[in-house]
Amino acid sequence: MKAVRIHEFGGPEVMKYEDVPEPQPGPGEIRIRVIAAGVNPMDWKIRKGMVGKVPLPMIMGLDVAGTVDSGESGALFQPGEEVYAKVSIGQGGYAEYTVVNSTQAAKKPGSIGFIESAAIPTAGLAAWQSLFDIARLERGQSILIHGAAGGVGTFAVQFAKWKGAYVFGTASEKNEQFLKSIGVDEFIDYKKQKFEDVVGKVDVVLDTVGGDTFERSWGVLQPNGFLVSTVASIPEGMPEKYGVFAKTLMTRPDGEELAKIAGIIDEQQIKPIVTTILPLSEARKAHEMSESRHIRGKIVLRVAEDPE
Ligand SMILES: NC(=O)c1ccc[n+]([C@@H]2O[C@H](COP(=O)([O-])OP(=O)(O)OC[C@H]3O[C@@H](n4cnc5c(N)ncnc54)[C@H](OP(=O)(O)O)[C@@H]3O)[C@@H](O)[C@H]2O)c1
């Protein structure tokens, strides 16, 4: 099969579009014929060797949508079913076939195609787990979302709105109308305004940016508020100093949560925002775009033609 692998860490040029053996499912696993693969900043961080030691050569990619091709005993899905999944590092999403434990997969939303479905797993689960599993965001609470126009942010904005929260979102000027259209109540242009001057105190901050943005976020939380960061580690003693809670997200694959998200999408409550679609053979270009840190929504690689 064709896949995009790395044999060493480095720039986009270390990714090779090449022939590799097809993976075979083990007990409880399914093999997915991949139709689309999502691209995440984590992909280029892994490619650069920023995520620590991973066995090489390695097929890139963490998010897929496709059809079940074969399965082993104990697998939760049958051949032919349309699924989407977050695959573990090394299993490989940028490939014509991938193998996952069936608990990492769910039926894909019926109301959208494979391309949009492949945009969901990592970013959608990151937003879901940050807001609901960690910060326990409730109806009527307020949330500040840093990086609201990005992959994680566009899901977080829509989930927060769906829950009934009041949403502040930061991005640059070009994203103002877009973010208001997906649920941001108050837009903050981080290049022109200090969010501290706009939000007062909020119940939850979701930080997907880090650095100075993360450091300035402690001061805008209500007592017992929650700061979740997808990028920054929590310095010892800071939550106690501010009387708040804080956690760094570690997104985990979770088929049951993907099934819940699929349900909300099928009720037309939220939609994945895909702004760039490239063929699998152009994974290098996808990484260059993602590394710019100014993509709106998601980039998705088309691996095979949609059968529909
Ligand atoms: N820990 C985990 O489990 C986990 C899971 C998922 C993601 N992550 C990490 O979380 C981060 C975000 O992921 P992502 O997929 O959302 O990234 P992304 O899609 O690449 O984010 C791009 C967005 O960031 C915005 N942005 C850039 N600088 C900003 C700033 N200073 N203030 C506000 N917005 C800014 C851009 O908006 P403008 O163009 O308007 O500037 C753009 O829309 C990445 O570092 C990723 O690796 C971690």
Description:
This protein is α/β, with parallel strands linked by helices and 308 residues long. It has two domains: 2-120 and 272-302, Medium-chain alcohol dehydrogenases, catalytic domain (Quinone Oxidoreductase, Chain A, domain 1, Alpha-Beta Complex); 123-248, Rossmann fold. Helices cover 26% and strands 29% of the residues. The chain has helices at residues 41-47, 114-118, 121-134, 151-163, 176-182, 196-199, 211-215, 238-242, 255-266, 283-291, and strands at residues 2-6, 15-19, 29-39, 58-59, 63-71, 82-86, 97-101, 105-107, 142-146, 166-171, 186-189, 202-207, 221-229, 245-248, 274-279, 298-302. The strands form three sheets. Strands 3, 5, 6, 7, 8, 15 and 16 form a seven-stranded mixed sheet that branches. Strands 11-10-9-12-13-14 form a six-stranded parallel sheet. Strands 2-1-4 form a three-stranded antiparallel sheet, with no helix packed on it. It is globular. The mean pLDDT is 97. The structure holds NADP nicotinamide-adenine-dinucleotide phosphate. NADP nicotinamide-adenine-dinucleotide phosphate binds at residues 40-42, 45, 122-123, 126, 146-147, 149-153, 170-172, 175, 190, 208-209, 213, 230-231, 249-251, 290, 293-296.
